[in-house]
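Deliverable D5.2: sample structural annotation.
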Amino acid sequence: MEYDVVVRNGVVVDGSGAPRFKADVAIKDRKIAALIDPADAATASGAREIDATGLMIAPGFIDLHSHSDWVLPIADHGQILKPFLLQGVTTFVGGNCGFSVAPVMRERQRMLDESGRLCAERKFDWEWDDVAGFAAHLKRQGLALNVAHLAGHGSIRLSVMGSDSGEPSAEQLRAMQAMVERAMADGAVGLSCGLGYFPGMIAKPAELAALARVAAAANGVLTSHLRAYSERSLFFDSRTPHNILAVREMANVAR
Protein backbone atom coordinates (compact mmCIF):
# COMPACT_ATOMS: atom_id res chain seq x y z
CA MET A 1 0.00 0.00 0.00
CA GLU A 2 1.21 3.52 -0.74
CA TYR A 3 1.51 6.09 2.08
CA ASP A 4 2.72 9.66 2.26
CA VAL A 5 5.50 8.81 4.72
CA VAL A 6 6.83 5.55 6.14
CA VAL A 7 9.20 5.64 9.12
CA ARG A 8 11.28 2.45 8.95
CA ASN A 9 13.26 0.33 11.42
CA GLY A 10 12.42 2.26 14.60
CA VAL A 11 11.36 1.08 18.03
CA VAL A 12 7.87 2.29 18.92
CA VAL A 13 7.09 3.60 22.40
CA ASP A 14 3.41 4.45 22.16
CA GLY A 15 2.86 6.09 25.56
CA SER A 16 0.30 3.53 26.73
CA GLY A 17 2.67 1.80 29.14
CA ALA A 18 2.90 -1.25 26.88
CA PRO A 19 6.34 -2.68 26.15
CA ARG A 20 8.25 -1.07 23.30
CA PHE A 21 8.14 -2.90 19.99
CA LYS A 22 9.67 -2.73 16.55
CA ALA A 23 7.40 -1.50 13.76
CA ASP A 24 7.31 0.71 10.71
CA VAL A 25 4.96 3.68 11.09
CA ALA A 26 2.94 4.68 8.03
CA ILE A 27 1.47 8.17 7.71
CA LYS A 28 -1.33 9.24 5.38
CA ASP A 29 -2.96 12.67 5.22
CA ARG A 30 -0.86 13.82 8.21
CA LYS A 31 -2.17 11.02 10.45
CA ILE A 32 -0.77 7.66 11.52
CA ALA A 33 -2.48 5.19 9.20
CA ALA A 34 -0.81 1.91 10.12
CA LEU A 35 1.77 0.16 12.26
CA ILE A 36 3.52 -2.40 10.11
CA ASP A 37 5.34 -5.46 11.41
CA PRO A 38 8.92 -5.51 10.09
CA ALA A 39 8.17 -8.92 8.55
CA ASP A 40 5.53 -7.23 6.39
CA ALA A 41 7.64 -4.19 5.49
CA ALA A 42 7.49 -4.95 1.78
CA THR A 43 3.70 -4.52 1.79
CA ALA A 44 3.98 -0.76 2.33
CA SER A 45 5.83 2.01 0.57
CA GLY A 46 5.96 5.75 1.08
CA ALA A 47 6.41 8.76 -1.13
CA ARG A 48 8.96 9.66 1.52
CA GLU A 49 10.75 7.12 3.70
CA ILE A 50 12.68 7.85 6.88
CA ASP A 51 15.22 5.42 8.33
CA ALA A 52 14.85 5.42 12.12
CA THR A 53 17.38 2.66 12.83
CA GLY A 54 18.61 3.03 16.40
CA LEU A 55 15.91 5.58 17.24
CA MET A 56 12.64 5.62 19.14
CA ILE A 57 9.32 6.56 17.52
CA ALA A 58 6.83 8.11 19.93
CA PRO A 59 3.71 10.26 19.86
CA GLY A 60 4.32 13.97 20.27
CA PHE A 61 4.93 15.01 23.87
CA ILE A 62 2.46 17.23 25.74
CA ASP A 63 3.90 20.15 27.73
CA LEU A 64 1.33 20.44 30.54
CA HIS A 65 2.69 23.65 32.02
CA SER A 66 3.40 26.29 29.39
CA HIS A 67 3.10 30.04 29.00
CA SER A 68 3.46 29.90 25.23
CA ASP A 69 -0.04 31.32 24.78
CA TRP A 70 1.72 34.68 25.29
CA VAL A 71 3.87 33.92 22.23
CA LEU A 72 1.28 32.31 19.92
CA PRO A 73 -0.34 35.60 18.79
CA ILE A 74 2.97 36.68 17.22
CA ALA A 75 3.16 35.86 13.52
CA ASP A 76 6.66 34.34 13.82
CA HIS A 77 5.80 32.28 16.90
CA GLY A 78 6.76 29.11 15.03
CA GLN A 79 10.40 30.16 14.88
CA ILE A 80 10.37 31.21 18.54
CA LEU A 81 8.81 27.93 19.71
CA LYS A 82 10.80 25.71 17.34
CA PRO A 83 13.06 24.37 20.13
CA PHE A 84 10.01 22.74 21.75
CA LEU A 85 9.17 20.92 18.52
CA LEU A 86 12.80 19.81 18.15
CA GLN A 87 12.50 18.22 21.62
CA GLY A 88 9.38 16.31 20.56
CA VAL A 89 6.72 18.61 22.04
CA THR A 90 3.75 18.86 19.68
CA THR A 91 1.05 20.04 22.12
CA PHE A 92 1.12 22.43 25.04
CA VAL A 93 -1.35 23.51 27.70
CA GLY A 94 -1.27 27.32 27.97
CA GLY A 95 -2.80 29.84 30.33
CA ASN A 96 -1.05 28.52 33.42
CA CYS A 97 -0.38 30.25 36.75
CA GLY A 98 -3.51 32.41 36.45
CA PHE A 99 -2.15 34.42 33.51
CA SER A 100 -3.94 33.68 30.26
CA VAL A 101 -4.41 35.84 27.19
CA ALA A 102 -8.13 34.95 27.19
CA PRO A 103 -10.67 35.63 28.47
CA VAL A 104 -9.98 39.32 29.11
CA MET A 105 -11.96 42.54 29.05
CA ARG A 106 -10.87 44.90 26.29
CA GLU A 107 -10.55 47.88 28.61
CA ARG A 108 -8.01 45.95 30.73
CA GLN A 109 -5.86 44.52 27.96
CA ARG A 110 -3.05 47.03 28.37
CA MET A 111 -2.95 46.26 32.08
CA LEU A 112 -2.43 42.63 31.10
CA ASP A 113 0.49 43.69 28.92
CA GLU A 114 2.26 44.55 32.17
CA SER A 115 1.18 41.47 34.13
CA GLY A 116 2.25 39.20 31.27
CA ARG A 117 5.70 40.69 30.74
CA LEU A 118 7.44 37.67 32.26
CA CYS A 119 5.67 35.37 29.79
CA ALA A 120 5.52 37.43 26.62
CA GLU A 121 8.15 37.53 23.91
CA ARG A 122 6.94 41.03 23.08
CA LYS A 123 3.70 42.99 23.07
CA PHE A 124 1.08 42.06 20.51
CA ASP A 125 -2.13 43.56 19.20
CA TRP A 126 -5.14 42.28 21.13
CA GLU A 127 -7.66 41.22 18.51
CA TRP A 128 -9.93 39.23 20.85
CA ASP A 129 -11.42 39.32 24.31
CA ASP A 130 -12.77 35.78 24.76
CA VAL A 131 -11.46 32.27 24.17
CA ALA A 132 -13.46 31.87 20.96
CA GLY A 133 -11.95 35.06 19.56
CA PHE A 134 -8.45 33.95 20.56
CA ALA A 135 -8.97 30.59 18.85
CA ALA A 136 -10.27 32.33 15.72
CA HIS A 137 -7.19 34.57 15.65
CA LEU A 138 -4.89 31.55 15.88
CA LYS A 139 -6.82 29.72 13.17
CA ARG A 140 -6.48 32.68 10.81
CA GLN A 141 -2.81 33.13 11.56
CA GLY A 142 -1.82 29.46 11.63
CA LEU A 143 -0.37 27.36 14.45
CA ALA A 144 3.02 25.73 14.82
CA LEU A 145 1.88 23.50 17.72
CA ASN A 146 -1.36 22.06 19.06
CA VAL A 147 -2.86 23.99 21.96
CA ALA A 148 -5.12 23.37 24.94
CA HIS A 149 -6.09 26.51 26.83
CA LEU A 150 -6.73 27.29 30.50
CA ALA A 151 -8.68 30.35 31.61
CA GLY A 152 -6.51 32.27 34.06
CA HIS A 153 -7.98 33.46 37.36
CA GLY A 154 -5.48 36.32 37.54
CA SER A 155 -6.39 37.66 34.09
CA ILE A 156 -10.08 37.35 34.90
CA ARG A 157 -9.72 39.11 38.26
CA LEU A 158 -7.68 41.93 36.74
CA SER A 159 -10.32 42.30 34.04
CA VAL A 160 -13.18 42.61 36.52
CA MET A 161 -11.46 44.31 39.48
CA GLY A 162 -8.36 45.99 38.09
CA SER A 163 -5.68 46.40 40.75
CA ASP A 164 -8.23 46.38 43.61
CA SER A 165 -6.74 44.26 46.39
CA GLY A 166 -10.00 43.77 48.25
CA GLU A 167 -12.42 40.89 48.16
CA PRO A 168 -14.81 40.84 45.21
CA SER A 169 -18.37 42.04 45.72
CA ALA A 170 -21.17 39.64 44.90
CA GLU A 171 -21.58 41.40 41.57
CA GLN A 172 -17.87 41.18 40.77
CA LEU A 173 -17.78 37.51 41.71
CA ARG A 174 -20.71 36.81 39.39
CA ALA A 175 -18.91 38.67 36.60
CA MET A 176 -15.81 36.51 37.10
CA GLN A 177 -17.90 33.35 37.15
CA ALA A 178 -19.58 34.42 33.92
CA MET A 179 -16.18 34.84 32.26
CA VAL A 180 -15.16 31.34 33.35
CA GLU A 181 -18.45 29.90 32.15
CA ARG A 182 -18.08 31.55 28.76
CA ALA A 183 -14.47 30.41 28.49
CA MET A 184 -15.43 26.81 29.16
CA ALA A 185 -18.25 27.01 26.61
CA ASP A 186 -15.73 28.38 24.08
CA GLY A 187 -13.41 25.40 24.54
CA ALA A 188 -11.12 26.12 27.50
CA VAL A 189 -10.08 22.94 29.31
CA GLY A 190 -10.10 24.38 32.81
CA LEU A 191 -9.13 27.12 35.24
CA SER A 192 -5.65 28.06 36.41
CA CYS A 193 -4.54 30.01 39.49
CA GLY A 194 -1.27 31.75 40.32
CA LEU A 195 -1.31 32.24 44.08
CA GLY A 196 2.29 33.41 44.32
CA TYR A 197 1.63 36.41 42.07
CA PHE A 198 -0.63 39.44 42.08
CA PRO A 199 -3.62 39.30 42.00
CA GLY A 200 -3.81 35.59 42.83
CA MET A 201 -1.88 36.11 46.06
CA ILE A 202 -4.74 38.15 47.53
CA ALA A 203 -7.55 35.81 46.47
CA LYS A 204 -9.08 33.80 49.28
CA PRO A 205 -10.12 30.14 48.97
CA ALA A 206 -13.82 30.99 48.81
CA GLU A 207 -13.25 33.14 45.72
CA LEU A 208 -11.17 30.45 44.05
CA ALA A 209 -13.73 27.76 44.88
CA ALA A 210 -16.55 29.86 43.43
CA LEU A 211 -14.76 29.97 40.08
CA ALA A 212 -13.56 26.37 40.29
CA ARG A 213 -17.17 25.20 40.65
CA VAL A 214 -17.97 26.77 37.29
CA ALA A 215 -15.06 25.02 35.60
CA ALA A 216 -16.01 21.73 37.27
CA ALA A 217 -19.58 22.00 36.02
CA ALA A 218 -18.12 21.97 32.48
CA ASN A 219 -15.84 18.99 33.30
CA GLY A 220 -12.80 21.25 33.42
CA VAL A 221 -9.59 20.82 35.39
CA LEU A 222 -8.14 23.09 38.09
CA THR A 223 -4.41 23.83 38.13
CA SER A 224 -2.47 26.11 40.44
CA HIS A 225 0.87 27.70 41.11
CA LEU A 226 0.61 27.22 44.87
CA ARG A 227 0.85 29.99 47.43
CA ALA A 228 4.06 28.59 48.93
CA TYR A 229 6.71 26.07 47.92
CA SER A 230 8.97 26.33 50.96
CA GLU A 231 8.73 25.66 54.68
CA ARG A 232 8.30 29.37 55.43
CA SER A 233 6.76 32.12 53.32
CA LEU A 234 4.98 35.47 53.60
CA PHE A 235 1.56 33.93 53.04
CA PHE A 236 0.86 31.93 56.20
CA ASP A 237 1.32 32.55 59.93
CA SER A 238 1.80 29.02 61.19
CA ARG A 239 4.47 26.66 62.49
CA THR A 240 3.17 24.05 60.06
CA PRO A 241 5.33 24.02 56.93
CA HIS A 242 3.83 26.54 54.56
CA ASN A 243 4.22 24.35 51.49
CA ILE A 244 2.02 21.75 53.22
CA LEU A 245 -0.56 24.42 54.02
CA ALA A 246 -0.50 25.56 50.40
CA VAL A 247 -1.22 22.03 49.17
CA ARG A 248 -4.05 21.68 51.70
CA GLU A 249 -5.53 25.00 50.58
CA MET A 250 -5.81 23.92 46.96
CA ALA A 251 -7.01 20.44 47.90
CA ASN A 252 -9.85 22.08 49.81
CA VAL A 253 -10.62 24.41 46.90
CA ALA A 254 -10.69 21.41 44.56
CA ARG A 255 -13.06 19.54 46.87
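Annotation notes: The first helix runs from residue 77 to 80. The chain has eight helices and ten strands.
The annotation will be released with the project's public dataset once the embargo ends.
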